[in-house]
Amino acid sequence: MVAYINLRLLSATGKLLRLPSIHEPEEVWPSQWSRGFCMVLVESVPSTLCRQLITPLNVNGTASQCGIRRLPQLRPLFLSAVSHQEAEASTGKDFSHLPPMPGQDSPLRWAGKKFEELPIIHIKATYNNTHIQLTDSAGQSLVRTSCGTEGFKNSKKSTPIAAQTAGISAAAKATVKGVTFVRVVVKGLGPGRLSAIKGLTMGGLQLVSITDNTPVPHNGCRP
Amino acid sequence: MARHLRFIARTVMVQDGNVDTAYKNLNRMLTQDGIIDAVKRRRYFEKPCRERRRKNFENCRRIYHMEMARKIAFVSRTNREDPWLGC
């Protein structure tokens, strides 16, 4: 049984900010869940996926589910100050959509490596090009490809197909170096954002997690 | 985000090699957080005058939609106890 984590933030201004609930679209989850889920009311917390103030709460059968976008009624919001706990694996495979935190020792291993030791693929998807770089967990670069190194020029670099070829070639070079499981970090909103990931999978790499590291300035430099 | 811990926020695990679902989940999370919107808006500079007008407009729009949804939910109630019981 999968445990879902639903978060809702009510900011100090009274605006209803919603943190998304992550659930698999195929499952009919209201009828299947029998374990607790987390709901939190946190005031004046920035609306990022901040996991420090998430609370677990065993409210079996409480009807309020903020997963689907329904009519914006105020749900019963529970406030407590317990730190976040991951879902306990009971019977069968228990998959948490959130990554294992560095402090926690989770039993998940990929090719014998913990989550923090997996190599990282950085994908920088700009509006004109897509760069893919494979580094190990420390940051040492192993493989570097981009649409330009694949032979595309000028405007052809800013296409999803070019990003896909770059992904395939990066995956090929990575398998030569003996890399199988990777984490992906995506930066930027460009045309090659999704197709680079697709190219990596097509090239034979196994993705463990996808992170988004798009730089969002808190009103820094003028764009 | 050099000052933040990495791989905590904005991260989705891939289940059973289902990259598409994971990416969709990630996208949904980001849109609901307003990050995609903010990034698109910051591509070009938005003058403070236009920004104030847009924020005001979005506030009014949000209030209007909330109230309208409340009204629709209220008006479309069908199964309820008899309000005129006893008369």
Explain the overall architecture.
The complex is a heterodimer of chains A (223) and B (87). Helices cover 14% and strands 19% of the residues of chain A. With 223 residues, chain A is an alpha/beta fold. Chain A has a domain at 122-212: 2-Layer Sandwich (Nucleotidyltransferase, domain 5), CATH 3.30.420. A 5-stranded mixed β-sheet of chain A has the order 6-5-4-7-8, covered by helices on one side. In chain A, helix 2 runs parallel beside helix 3 (193-203). Mean pLDDT of chain A is 71; it is low at 1-47, 52-68 and 70-92. Chain B has 87 residues and is mostly helical. Chain B has 2 domains: 16-44, no CATH class; 46-77. Chain B starts with 10 loop residues before the first strand and ends in a 12-residue tail after the last helix. The model of chain B has no long low-confidence stretch (mean pLDDT 91). Strand 8 (206-212) of chain A pairs antiparallel with strand 1 (11-13) of chain B.
Low-confidence stretches of chain B: none
The CATH architecture of the domain at 122-212 in chain A can be given as 2-Layer Sandwich
Helix content of chain B: 55-70%
Largest β-sheet summary of chain A: 5 strands, mixed
Helix/strand order of chain A, N-terminal first:
EEHEEEEHEHE
Instruction: Give the terminus-to-terminus CA distance of chain B.
Output: 66 Å
Averaged pLDDT of chain A, please? Answer: 71
Largest sheet of chain B: none
Calculate Rg of chain B over CA atoms: 22 Å
Helical segment count of chain B = 3
Q: First CA to last CA of chain A: what distance?
A: 46 Å
Q: What fraction, in percent, of the residue positions of chain A are helical?
A: 10-25%
Shape assignment of chain A = globular
CATH superfamily of the domain at 122-212 in chain A: Ribosomal protein S11/S14
Oligomer: heterodimer
Q: SS-based structural class of chain B? A: mainly alpha
CATH C-level of the domain at 122-212 in chain A: Alpha Beta
Keywords (chain B): Ribonucleoprotein, Ribosomal protein
InterPro entries (chain B): Ribosomal_bS21, Ribosomal_bS21_sf
Organism (chain B): Gambusia affinis
GO molecular function, one term (chain B): structural constituent of ribosome
